[in-house]
């Protein structure tokens, strides 16, 4: 990135600040609404029926969403993803020595695995949900048209120069008033299909906002250091470090894996801070990308020193990026995101990182004349990690110094941490999905030198693998690297 070419800073109106919590916005009405929503008990200006209206929207059969009834979840889920969503919850429960076959398709084999492990309650819930949706028609696949309103994978201004290594051409963000007017006339405000079930919500609930503003709990425990001294170690409740070496060891143990490539081990899994927090997967994936930047001291790490920024802070950074003229269509399409649970995508992630001067680029992938979209995706991801310098002595399982990849498809986003090539010739992504916590079996292996023979590698890796059975449904993807 060239530091000699500054961003164009449009004239910014005076920013007003909430006297109670520091929330700020240039629009006076938004500040007033924020104070009434978050700091005024029993405010006569807040419509109490809003939550009921949102729940009614989620439960409407035409909305495309259904509420997950898993006790630790309760999140709205796209109907076409509901079965996979339940299967992943079962995978969260896998212990180190659980038995079972590797799932061959989404759902059924994994259900057998959990049943043999004694999770009968989860099996009853799963069977109930299956019977409910067996009568439903097959889901409509997301459209491959870039202009389709069925997908939340919106396209940033850098698509035509996607996978660029830097933002040396800052002028692509700096637009004249005439260009901005043309863009505004073409940009349409997105709706529930793209922004999620909370698209019409003016402000998230007060308790949730305060919890996100405070951040996740930080736990302190004692640990012996290398020289035998007793050290204070601090861990963040929704973050799990050192998972990449564990996944590499599990891939090594799997005789069905011919080769695997993994990202830098500095990346941490970042999951939900609390149950029923809403659709913050885009923010959690940004946090995982930041964990790599921090841990690897990657280029552009200075703005992210210290704790990983909270969701509220990330929203503020995205809004600031829009103020700087970066991907300003995002503000027009979303109507602003401060204090809301609206879904975000690659455009907002790019806006955030670009506003700090961090080199990155968006790549839009779709099917070509010879390959379906998921094969195009595999090829791109494999090249990304093959270009990295390998670490370790294994010829099969290569841990590299490459960064993870922000990965978006219609309705959800994840962080790609690697790719597997199987002996059958098929491939699968390795991912961190912020919607699910690493299973106890994976956590128990952190710091372990050698994995025992009783460990079921297929069950333990289920939560992190996304293969053809998952990806074939989508006709387009977006990546941020």
Record keyword descriptors for this entry.
single chain; 481 residues; alpha+beta; 9-stranded mixed β-sheet; two-stranded antiparallel ribbon; 17 helices; 15% strand; globular
Question: How would you characterize the overall build of this protein?
Answer:
By secondary structure, the protein is α+β, with helices and mostly antiparallel strands. It contains 17 helices and 17 strands. The strands form five sheets. Strands 8, 10, 11, 12, 13, 14, 15, 16 and 17 form a nine-stranded mixed beta sheet that branches. The protein has a two-stranded antiparallel sheet with strand order 1-2. Helix 11 (311-323) crosses helix 13. The longest helix has 15 residues, at 281-295. The radius of gyration is 22 Å and the shape is globular.
Helices, strands, pairings?
Elements: E1 16-17, E2 24-25, H1 28-38, H2 50-59, E3 65-67, E4 76-78, H3 82-91, H4 108-116, H5 120-133, H6 177-186, H7 192-195, H8 206-214, E5 218-224, E6 230-236, E7 239-240, H9 243-253, E8 257-262, E9 269-270, H10 281-295, H11 311-323, H12 329-334, H13 346-355, E10 362-366, H14 373-386, E11 390-391, E12 397-400, E13 405-409, E14 412-422, E15 427-432, H15 440-444, H16 457-461, E16 465-466, H17 468-471, E17 476-480
Parallel strand pairs: 8-12
Antiparallel strand pairs: 1-2, 3-4, 5-6, 7-9, 8-14, 10-17, 11-12, 13-14, 13-17, 14-15, 15-16
């Amino acid at each position: 990135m060239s530091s000699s070419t500054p961003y164009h800073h449009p004239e910014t109106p005076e920013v007003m600040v909430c006297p109670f919590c520091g929330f700020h916005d240039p629009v006076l009405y938004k500040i007033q609404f924020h104070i009434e929503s978050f700091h005024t008990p029993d405010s006569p200006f807040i419509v109490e029926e809003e939550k009921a209206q949102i729940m009614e929207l989620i439960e409407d059969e035409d909305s495309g969403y259904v509420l997950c009834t898993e006790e630790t979840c309760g999140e709205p889920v796209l109907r076409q993803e509901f079965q996979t969503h339940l299967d992943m919850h079962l995978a969260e429960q896998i212990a180190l020595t659980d038995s079972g076959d590797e799932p061959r398709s989404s759902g059924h084999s994994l259900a057998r695995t959990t049943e043999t492990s004694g999770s009968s309650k989860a099996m009853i819930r799963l069977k109930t949900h299956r019977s409910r949706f067996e009568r439903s028609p097959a889901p409509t696949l997301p459209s491959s048209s870039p202009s389709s309103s069925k997908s939340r994978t919106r396209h940033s201004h850098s698509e035509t120069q996607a996978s660029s290594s830097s933002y040396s051409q800052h002028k692509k963000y700096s637009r004249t008033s005439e260009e901005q007017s043309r863009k505004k006339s073409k940009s349409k405000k997105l709706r529930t299909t793209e922004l999620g079930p909370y698209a019409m919500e003016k402000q998230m609930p007060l308790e949730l906002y305060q919890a996100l503003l405070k951040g996740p709990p930080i736990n302190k425990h004692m640990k012996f250091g290398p020289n035998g001294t007793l050290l204070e170690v601090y861990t963040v409740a929704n973050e799990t470090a050192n998972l990449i070496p564990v996944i590499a060891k599990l891939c090594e143990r799997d005789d069905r894996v011919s080769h695997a490539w993994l990202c830098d081990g500095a990346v941490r899994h970042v999951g939900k801070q609390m149950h029923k927090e809403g659709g913050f997967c885009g923010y959690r994936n940004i946090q995982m990308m930041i964990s790599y930047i921090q841990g690897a001291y990657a280029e552009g790490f200075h703005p992210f020193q210290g704790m990983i920024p909270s969701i509220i802070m990330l929203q503020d950074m995205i809004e600031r990026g829009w103020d700087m003229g970066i991907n300003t269509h995002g503000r027009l399409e979303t109507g602003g995101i401060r204090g809301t649970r609206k879904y975000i995508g690659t455009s907002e992630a790019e806006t955030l990182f670009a506003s700090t001067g961090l080199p990155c680029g968006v790549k839009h992938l779709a099917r070509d004349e010879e390959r379906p979209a998921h094969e195009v995706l595999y090829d791109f991801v494999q090249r990304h990690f093959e270009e990295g310098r390998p670490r370790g002595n294994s010829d099969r399982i290569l841990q590299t110094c490459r960064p993870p990849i922000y990965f978006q498809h219609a309705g959800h986003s994840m962080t790609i941490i690697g790719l597997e090539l199987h002996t059958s010739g098929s491939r699968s992504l390795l991912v961190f999905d912020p919607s699910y916590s690493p299973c106890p079996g994976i956590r128990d292996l952190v710091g372990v030198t050698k994995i025992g023979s009783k460990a079921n590698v297929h069950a333990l890796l289920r939560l992190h693998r996304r293969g053809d059975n998952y990806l074939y449904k989508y006709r387009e993807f977006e990546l941020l690297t």
